[in-house]
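Memo to structure team: turn this sequence into structure tokens by end of day. - J.P.
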Amino acid sequence: MSGKYDKILKETLGKSIRVFIRKILGIDAVKITPLNCKMQITNEREADFMFRIEERDDSSATGKKPPYIMHIEIHANNSPKIPRRMLMYWLFTDEIYDEHPKQYLFYVGKEPLTMPDYYPDLGDAYKYTIIDFSAIDCETFVNSGAPEEIVVSVLCNFKGKDGTIVIEHIFKKLKEAVTDALQLSKYIRQVEVLSQLRGLEEIAAKEAKKMPLIFDATKDRLFKQGLTEGELKGRRRGLLEGIQLGLDIKYGDRGLALMDKISAIDDLNKLERVKELIRTSVTVEDMENLPD
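Reply from structure team:
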């Protein structure tokens, strides 16, 4: 998995992966044990997710099927290199654990899925399973009550419903599920980023602005904690930590891009004005008029 969606995809899907194993793959696991995703033979590779699965089997004396390794990769593009990469992980896993993994590719891209579920040179001798998120009913996750699942629902099938209505519903469900303003801001921003994979970024941005979310980052507990620690280690450092947190909470990566310029400010009074500007600004463009 690569690109600007990596962190959000791995975080949101990682926290819900057990739900996906049950709801999407239809596996009734008794136990799911995470495995080391880094594989170093002559070179190092890192899989997205590796688990040892113990599946339920009520017909057996033990009530469980023999355990096996599950490997999951997430991709947002139809790269021709993916089948070879999946095969490489299959070989590495076999080398490290002396057993073949069951492999799944979660495809979350905007373009129609065109990748094969096998390595062309080997044909049916080697295959894995592809899960196309655009074919999954968004109702599977949007009403779950778990914020990570609600966020992921933006990647699923809207079943012909208008994008504006669905995004509005997703934000409504997030607001019901998350009471902490800081966390709610984070999940809203994640939906905005992932909506780009469905061409819905303008709708998501518009609906996000309608959210009755008034969050003053400078009053947040973590922001204040940054200032308190800064008084012990140096007020300037504390201000910079607080400013960075405020920018991240309110504007994400676009806000953090201003930190290079802000970090060059030595005057504490100017840094205080930057902090105040975060509180009063409406858009990240308002932050461009930083104190000299």
